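Q: Could you write out the predicted structure for this multi-component system? I'm mainly interested in how the pieces pack against one another.
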Amino acid sequence: MSAAANLIELAAGRAAGPDGYVRLDVGPEAWTGLAEGCAAGLQDLSALWADGERMRMALSTANRRAIVSLETQAGVYPSVSVYHPPAMRLERAMRDLYGVQPLGLPDPRPWLDHGRWLGRASEARYGFLPSEGEGLHQIAVGPIHAGIIEPGHFRFTANGETVVRLEQRLGYAHKGVERLLVGADIARGARIVGRISGDSTVAYAWAFARAVEAALGWTPPPRAVLLRAVMAELERLAHHISDVGAICNDASVLTIHARCALQREDVLAVADACFGHRLMMDRIVPGGVAVDLSSDGIGQVRGLLGRLEATRAEIQRVYDSLPSLQDRTVTTGVVSPELARQYAAGGFVGRASGRAFDARKAFPYAPYGELAFDLRTRTAGDVDARLLVRMDEIVDSLGIVHRLLDRLAPGPIANAPPPLAAGEGAALVEAFRGDVFLSVRIGEDGRLARVHARDASWFQWPLLEAAVEGNIVADFPLCNKSFNCSYSGHDL
Amino acid sequence: MRSFLLDALLKGKATIAPPAPGTAALEEIARSLGERARRRLGRSLSIREVDAGSCNGCELEANALNNPVYDIERFGLKFVASPRHADVLLVTGPVTWNMREALLRAYVATPDPKWVVALGDCAADCGVFAGSPAVVGPLSGILPVDLHIRGCPPPPLDIVKGLLALIETRA
């Protein structure tokens, strides 16, 4: 057995590509060594995917990023999750989609493949993990949930009111996104990627644009870069304020929910007026942005920022004044700092459990490198901490948008594409719920040969299972809402 | 808390005036609804939303219908938790193979008379996901669809217009 390998040592002296990633080909020994290094905390596992005959891992430390590739032996390769459990669902998913075989995979059950796809053998009944003990009962929920929510199955095992195990079964929203992207031209690719998780459409479109631009040596004009960030922050603001309300709603404080829902509606109406789409879908495109912001629009966004600031302050004041609300959120659904680190949990889930990571700060992409803002972390790791991190981040986003608008100078909003060529690029973008990793490989014909997208939810869903343990069943909605993981983004 | 509530009272109503039912939706509904069914339906509808593999964009806009701006319950339209309480299945997404059975079961569990509304471009023609082997195909190939509300995603006002058409055809 190999010893834990350190990415920094392995990548020493190697230059990073224009996308900031060092690219390394490794053998099976270094591959498993790096997996052990992830388990030992030497580096974070950021993504794992199959690309033709090769398996790839995106790894990162505090200041280095690398994509390592391993030639498989007819699809067989040493499993990463043997050493590092956070890779488990990724490996199961890649096996289901591409037939690659992780040797020694500890959990051999299918993940995205439910035995329903045409031309695939129908799987035997999915075996949920056993929970044995006196007085235990199971509660099966989904795939269709009670509210207007995405599909997924939750299997609770409870002792009275206390949850002793939650097991998730996901994949219901799997629509073959990666398959559709193979052979697509770049414009179509942007439209598909913008619909991997609709709530993060701006972040996905931005990640795709940056990855394609890095692959082709394409540069967006400065005005487009600023407008991209304006849209990304508006998307973040809309979700942060609306999720704070939704969490309070699950603790029966409907007034806060109504107020937050109104404020979200305000953001979407302004986005519609300024960018021509409430969710700003298809507005970020490789090479720039598809729509400019008028001087009237700048005024509208500034007006919105003022209203958001007032709402946020009011909600914070009311939240602080309601002990019965905090009684539901404090010490509920705790994620330990150790788990957050092990799973490299992105977004407010990680930051509320002490993981000081935000893609905008860790690996600053334009225009964030030149914008000072705080990295908000807390250590309690409960529903309250996740909510408060988001309340703090609203303040930061408001400041960021003001400064972006200050910098906005007249100019073009898109640059023409360079000649079609083969290339590779990757990007990490901070969506509202955490970092989205996107890798693009373009073929000689200028079409997409392989696109892989890794939503922050991949590493957050498993932590929700851990967070719920020991809580009462009635607090599950609160825990779940405080994570707000994406089903579609995960199911691909 | 008191000032928070007072503030809400003094600010006046956030709810917008009701829109006219969508004309295209009215025509489609008039074709699909029998007179007798319309009479039984009355002026209220219970809606069960089913995400059959959407990107969640349609869910965001369907959720917005409950906010104070659109306040859809004032029209007698109400989202319910179980298909057994529903008159309408509001279906989003391109219908993935992995969601097909759950969707069919929800349809069977919905008591007659019932209506199926396809919400968004994906439910109409699979949208950008058309041609994927993981997708069954447009909703109309799986369930009898009474109304299509197009858009990617359809803005809340378009959804309201479509649903209003569904209850207005009675007049």
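A: Regarding packing and overall arrangement: Chain A touches chain B through 53 residues (CB under 8 Å).
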